[in-house]
Design goal:
By secondary structure, this protein is an alpha+beta fold. The chain has two domains: about 140 residues, 3-Layer(aba) Sandwich (NADH Oxidase); about 180 residues, NADH Oxidase (3-Layer(aba) Sandwich). It has 14 helices and eleven strands. The strands form three sheets. It has a five-stranded mixed beta sheet.
Amino acid sequence: MGSSATYAEQSAHLRSPLAVSPSARDLIRYATLAPNGHNAQPWHFRIGERRIDIMPDLARRTPIVDPDDHHIFVSLGAAAENLVLASAARGAPGMISFDPRKDGAVGIVFERARPIPSRLFDAIPRRQSTRAVYDGRQVSAVDIDSLARSAAVPGVDLVLLTDHRRIDHLRDLVLTGNTNQMADPAFVRELKSWLRFNPRQALRSADGLYSVASGNPELPDWLGPFAFDRFSTAESENEAYARQIRSSAGLAVFVGGGASPEHWVSVGRSCQRFALQATALGLSHAFINQPVEVARLRPELAALIGLPGRRPDIVMRFGYGPTMPWSPRRPVDAVIVT
């Protein structure tokens, strides 16, 4: 099944500190540490003269859970935010733009300036989506305000839930969405195709959902799918989600200004800034997106957060949690195109 130590060494290498004078490839390495749906890493990078373009890799779509490619463009926005934070910290701040005429590419054009260090940049290699039970501690009002301010991106609304009534309501939406998804054979097939059950499998593919990072045991390639079918039922998953949400300090819901790739890129930037600030504050976070992935649940979620008629884009929980194994990432050379 491979060596956990080897896997950890490779993960640490990918998250090594950024050089003082980084190359474009180094900046792209930092960009790829962004979160993305099913860890499919659905992006290509093209290096130009004082610019880098991030383009959707539609060969890595997840059409069952994400039929309109919403998660792809959120992922591109998160990667773009990592990239501009990293380039600014090394004296080359970047301006982000979106051009729907170029297959939905996100362009970053760089200038020369004095380095702009930030806590968000420092948090990039430490950020992880922590799918575990947290310790239930509350987050101070000062830190809640810091999270909200850090996530401010034009055109994106952030609603933070820390009261038990609304958290319980959103939990019920998560459980309903999970039950709906787990009852869909196509969804389950797609999810299983992205699961990696041991270090060797995760290193070989360099993508997907490394099950050990969610607290599950390592399993041989042949046994993993059978164990998933046997033990990962809607009921067991719902129990796990309920425990995880109950242990969280709060929930964050991100809502873009519209339902288009350009708006979804902005949402990705906002939720990544939130995640990085959470990391800087010693907080964990994880995505619980079932209420936005199951379309019929979106209106109820929008009403719950006081934005009726809008389309919620991302749901995250946050709190004080453990450090888990990292998710795999593809080599930089594999994501650069000419």
